[in-house]
């Protein structure tokens, strides 16, 4: 009886716990309604026949999803997103880590250079898109300088597909025009990876580098065998965050190029917006949104699971 009383006493919710729950409850309710509630609603609409101004919630099964995978534009969007993500993440990692290593050499005026590289992050993707649309305009911008050397790239107006082969309804290969969007996105987001890598470098003890040098390692080997491997958690975080941005990119593409000729710069976010709010195909737009959610979840869920497993371990 005494042991049972002690157990009951231990399970009693304290006043502090009730207070914490009261503070958390409004946020949890808002998240449940405006995040998961709207995701559920979007999923429900994607299985309906609501493709006119008049709501029609009759069950359509997988017809909206099957239409997408047969659709030329959606296939082009997946191709563009794949190459945009690969080039965007790769360049952000290489430039961010490279500049961070240079700034870590205790250069004079380091804070000035750091602020210069971080400045683009203060701009919205819309502003970045408008600026780079002018800079990469084939008739103005950089081409005014490049024409002196006889170089006149068409940038985001180029419809060529490099190393293309027929895949489904599209020509699968690297759309040259998407590289212009990559340049603009990398310019804006390199500062983010720079800040993360610089913080990681400052967290590596100098003793480890000195020990490697004493063992006869060259400066390049110190970074290749000691420093860069220790930055791997930073790299994983950068990959996840940049993948999340690239897979749901909308405003940069919409402001800079739109869908492009033959959809060479189109992405699912732009397609979803135009399908839903211009074409009034609400069920198809919802299906595109759910597919975007799935693409993001493919990257985010394993990362969260890995982190949780590491914390519990």
TrEMBL record:
Record-annotated membrane-spanning stretches: 20-39, 82-103, 115-135, 172-199, 226-247, 281-306
Keyword GTP-binding: no
Stretches of the chain forming a coiled coil according to its record: none
Endpoints of the signal sequence: none
GO cellular component, one term: plasma membrane
GO biological process, alphabetically ordered: transmembrane transport
Domain ABC transmembrane type-1: 78-305
Main localization category: membrane
Topology relative to the membrane: Multi-pass membrane protein
Similarity remark: Belongs to the binding-protein-dependent transport system permease family.
Protein name from the UniProt record: Glucose/mannose transport system permease protein
Taxonomic source organism: Salibacterium halotolerans
């Amino acid at each position: 009886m005494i042991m049972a009383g002690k157990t009951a006493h231990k399970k009693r919710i304290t006043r502090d716990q009730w207070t914490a729950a009261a503070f958390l409850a409004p946020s949890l309710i808002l998240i449940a309604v405006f995040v998961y509630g709207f995701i559920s609603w979007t999923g429900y609409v994607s299985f309906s026949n609501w493709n006119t101004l008049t709501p029609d919630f009759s069950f359509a099964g997988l017809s909206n999803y099957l239409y997408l995978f047969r659709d030329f534009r959606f296939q082009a969007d997946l191709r563009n997103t794949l190459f945009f993500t690969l080039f965007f993440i790769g360049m952000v990692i290489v430039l961010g880590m490279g500049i961070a290593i240079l700034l870590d050499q205790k250069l004079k005026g380091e804070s000035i250079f750091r602020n210069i590289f971080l400045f683009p992050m203060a701009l919205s993707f819309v502003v970045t898109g408008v600026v780079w649309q002018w800079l990469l305009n084939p008739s103005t911008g950089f081409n005014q300088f490049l024409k002196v050397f006889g170089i006149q790239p068409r940038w985001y107006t180029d419809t060529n597909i490099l190393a293309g082969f027929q895949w489904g309804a599209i020509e699968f290969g690297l759309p040259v025009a998407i590289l212009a969007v990559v340049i603009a996105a990398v310019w804006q987001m390199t500062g983010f990876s720079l800040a993360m890598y610089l913080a990681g470098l400052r967290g590596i003890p100098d003793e480890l580098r000195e020990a490697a040098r004493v063992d006869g390692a060259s400066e390049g080997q110190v970074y290749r065998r000691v420093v860069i491997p220790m930055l791997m958690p930073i790299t994983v975080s950068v990959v996840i965050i940049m993948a999340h941005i690239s897979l749901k990119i909308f405003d940069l593409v919409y402001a800079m190029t739109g869908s492009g000729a033959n959809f060479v710069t189109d992405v699912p976010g732009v397609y979803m917006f135009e399908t839903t709010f211009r074409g009034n195909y609400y069920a198809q737009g919802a299906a595109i949104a759910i597919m975007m959610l799935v693409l993001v979840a493919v990257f985010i869920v394993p990362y969260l699971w890995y982190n949780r497993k590491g914390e519990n371990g």
